[in-house]
Amino acid sequence: MAGGALKYRHLGRKSSHRQALLRNLVTSLFEHESISTTWPKAKEAQRLAEKMITLGKRNTQAARNKAQAVFYKPVELMPKLFNELRERYSSRPGGYTRVLRIEPLKEDQAPSAILELVDGPRDMRFAMTAKTLVKERATEEGVRDLTAKNIIKVTRFREGGQEELERTVRALESRERDEERREQGAIRRKVYPVKDEETGKYIRMNK
């Protein structure tokens, strides 16, 4: 109908090419759990990816048939969808994916984004929250309200989320302490030139 709302982005492709593109993006997403692409493609692939997770949670023969028709690598990804991911999102009512804007990746400066599966090993917001928590715990002000809300968001439906976040924070704190020790050691470690009596040349000695 003329003047009707746009139901989906055409992405500058015919219907068959558009569907093939989205299938390819979703296959890569479920294989790697995080992909980078343009913003419009990420938003459209997100819609299909959400439907795929819903199929995985239904776990019926009809759902398996539909999922198999989407994946370009069904042998590898069907078990992951109907086992690992179904269990991961069993208590989550929705919002299985996340789109994050990033700096343009190509020379044409097209809006770019990261599309990722939430609560997975490559969950960027989880990692960013852990880094922020390390910095804020080291300040007098302590953890801000915004960070406290983000902690709830990234751990609410994640199995063992609070414990995993604390482990990540401790690992980051330990890494920072190691880096500080190396930097301090490099500052104290000075080099003095000493003349070799036999050759008459100067050599370098550390103290």
Brief descriptors of the model:
alpha+beta, three-stranded antiparallel β-sheet, elongated, 13% strand, 207 residues, two-stranded antiparallel ribbon, 5 strands, 7 helices
Can you offer a commentary on this structure?
Helix content is 55%, strand content 13%. It has 207 residues and is α+β, with helices and mostly antiparallel strands. Strand 4 (191-195) and strand 5 (202-206) form a beta hairpin. Helix 2 (39-58) packs antiparallel against helix 3 (61-68). The longest helix has 28 residues, at 161-188. The mean pLDDT is 87.
In short:
By secondary structure, this protein is an alpha+beta fold.
CA-to-CA gap between the ends? 81 Å
SSE arrangement, N to C: HEHHHEEHHHEE
Helical residues, percent:
55-70%
What is the average of the pLDDT values? 87
Write the layout of secondary structure elements.
Layout: H1 15-32, E1 34-38, H2 39-58, H3 61-68, H4 74-88, E2 97-102, E3 112-117, H5 124-137, H6 145-155, H7 161-188, E4 191-195, E5 202-206
Antiparallel strand pairs: 1-3, 2-3, 4-5
